[in-house]
């Protein structure tokens, strides 16, 4: 098995990467792009980056997850000009597009997570909606809608999403202002904000500008911000309460993360700087290891 590196440079100077995923079977990272309509694959051993898929419609690709069992790559695909958004289902080995699921005609699809059966759940950043897509029967549609998750005018609402380790609930990250929502999978009408203590979570900070990608490692949730990562330790069995620890990123410009060999890997994508501040990105784009020892 090739040794995983701490840093991987991404070659494109203009793609503005956003999403990241990892396939432990073939030892590849995947990076999505908001510009250029491409998804690339990065060999974890050699560090070589190659194009996996190119969109003829120049769609904006964001959140991504690998279903290793069924050899699928799920990628959020949107057109912010519409706006409209959907979910691409790709063959993770060949890059072939298996199917596109059109989910939103009034918003965009931001991030995706998978349950133990390979069912996908997707956030809409412009609407207070989480979608559900079941590849087993091809069904798709709204799973949860709640005004608590409504985005302020001109800002991003729902962003990252994760299934709790026990499979009982979904957690949705919310960007403006930063917060986390808990959605029961048995009763999706039951939406509530997670109560957080410890380090400030929703207070404006240049490093913690709002929850973006979220991901579990074991029983801890990691929330990615532009300039840092926050670790949530849940203090309630139903995930309704937790304590926060913050760590500044070695390099800012982050959007989300993946887990590779049990370690946290973030993608430096410069979305806040390039898209929201209209400034040139600090190159190169990269994927790098975020040591959890920074939370000690």
Model description:
By secondary structure, the chain is mainly β. The chain has a domain at 1-54 and 256-296: Thrombin, subunit H. It has one helix and 25 strands. It has one helix at 271-276, and strands at 7-9, 17-23, 28-33, 38-43, 49-54, 60-67, 72-79, 84-91, 97-104, 109-114, 120-124, 129-134, 139-145, 158-163, 169-174, 179-184, 191-193, 195-198, 214-217, 220-224, 228-234, 241-248, 254-260, 263-268, 286-289. It has a five-stranded mixed β-sheet, with no helix packed on it. The protein is globular. The model has no long low-confidence stretch (mean pLDDT 96).
Total DSSP helices: 1
Low-confidence regions: none
Question: What is the typical, i.e. mean, pLDDT?
Answer: 96
**H-E string:** EEEEEEEEEEEEEEEEEEEEEEEEHE
And the CATH topology of the domain at 1-54 and 256-296?
Thrombin, subunit H
Counting helices, strands and paired strands, the structural category is mainly beta
CATH architecture of the domain at 1-54 and 256-296: Beta Barrel
Strand order of the largest sheet: 18-22-21-20-19
Oligomer: single chain
Our estimate of the beta-strand percent is: over 45%
Which outline best applies? globular
The rounded Rg comes to: 17 Å
Q: In this structure, how is the largest beta sheet organized?
A: 5 strands, mixed
Kindly state the number of beta strands: 25
Q: How many angstroms does the end-to-end distance come to?
A: 30 Å
Task: Specify the helix fraction band.
Answer: under 10%
CATH hierarchy, class of the domain at 1-54 and 256-296: Mainly Beta
